[in-house]
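Reply to dn_fold:

You asked what the input looked like. This is it:
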Amino acid sequence: MRVVTLASEDDFEGWRDAARGLAQAGVPASEILWQVGETPTDLFAGQAAMPPAASRALKVPRAFVDLARSAILHRDCERFALLYALLADDPRRIADPADPRFRRIEAMAREVRRDIHKMRAFVRFREVRDALPFPGTGAPDARYVAWFEPSHHIVRANARFFVERFANMRWSILTPALSLHWDGETLCEGPGATRADAPGEDPVEDSWKTYYAAIFNPARLKTGAMLREMPRKYWKNMPETALVRELVATARQRETAMVATAHARSGGNAGAAWQALRDEAAHCTRCDLHRHATRTVFGEGPADARMMLVGEQPGDREDLAGRPFVGPAGEMLDRAMAAAGIDRDTVYLTNAVKHFKFERRGKRRIHARPDAGEIQACRWWYEQERSLVKPEMTVALGATAARQLLGRVLTIAATRGRVLELPEGGLGWVTIHPSYLLRLPDRAKAEDEFAAFVEDLAGAARAMA
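and this is what came back:
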C-alpha cells in the first residue's frame, strides 16, 4: 500500500504531481491511500516508496484538469481516490458522461463552484474600531472583518477575488478552518476562528437595513427561490437578513396595501412614471450595444394602451430618429395595421432590444441579429414597460420578440396565430416581423404573406375583444 500525504485539504498541485507519477507507473487505485497532513487515516497502512520513473505516457484533457481543480476543493474524503481512479483508467473515459465516477466528480465540481459563488455573495465586512494590531504588521489601524462558514475547502481558491475586489481596504476573512488577512499589499493566512471572534454590528448597518427594507417588494417574493439562492445558514452573517423573517411574515399585508394604494391613484401617475422610465433608459449601459448606437430607442404610444406590439430592435432609421417603427418595416406595419382595422395611435409600440445592432459595410449600417445576452440585458426595460402599460394583448413580431415575450427560444411556426396566456398576466400572440415581407423576392408570395400578416393582427385584435 502506497500512502500519499498532501499538504492540505485543497492541495491540488500536490495531488496532481503525485497522481501523474503514479498513473504513469501504472499503479492501480486500490494500492494507494490518500491522506492530508501527517496523521495517517488508516493506522494499518504502511508507507511505501513512490514508484520509479514513468513507464508510459500520460495525456490528460485540459477539461479534466479544470474539473479536478474544482472537485479537489470538495469536502468528500473520497475525492482524491475517485479522481485518481478515473485518471488511471482508460484515458478515453476521463470525460465520459456515462461513467458514474465522472458524473460524481462533475457534481462535486458544481457544488464547489456554487459554494465559491455563495462566499462572494454573502461575505459581509464589519469595521473594527478598537485599533487592534493588524495580523502580520504589528501596527494598529482600522480594518474590516468578515465571518463565513464555507461548505467546502474554497477559502484559498477565493482569496484572489477578494484581494482584487477590496484591494484598497485592510480586511480579514475568518472561517473555521483558516483565516485570510490582507494589509493592502500582502495576503497572509492565519489559523481558523470562531463566530465569536468576528465583530458584531457596525453603524453602517442601520443605514443598509433601512435601504433593504425600503426596496423589498412583497409582490415579487418567492420564498422557495430565495431559500435556494440564500440558504438560512448564511442569514446570521448578513445585516439585511435580520429583517427577512419580519418582511416575509408581513409580505401579504404589505402587498395588499400596495395594490390598494395603486388602485386609489390609478390613471394619475402612469404617464409620469413612463416618462421617468424613458429618461432612465436613455442612459442605459446594460450591454455593449450602447457604445455604437446613436441613442436608446424607447417605446411610444398611450400608457394605457390595450395592445402592445413588440419588434426585434430599432433599425437604421429608428436609431437616427429615436422612435420605433419609422423605417421601411414601420411603413409595412402601418399598412398592415390599417388593413386589420387597428389605429396605430391606440397601440403601444416597442422593441425587445432598445439599441441598434449593426455591421458597417462602407457607409452603410447593416442590421445584425441581437444575441441572447443582449436580449436578456434589455428584458428589464421590456418588463417595466409591460408593468406600466398593462396591455390586454401583447403581440410579438418575430422570433426575437417572441423570445422576450415568453422567455425562451421558439419558432414562429410553432406558436403563430394562437392565443397565449402570459404568466405575468394578459394575452400573447406571435407573428412575423414586417421586415420579413420586405425581403421576399417573389411578388405573389409577398402578397400572400402580407395578407396572412394582416389576418394575424386582426386575429390578435379579435382575441383581445
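The CA atoms of residues 12 and 69 lie 6 Å apart.
Hope that clears it up.
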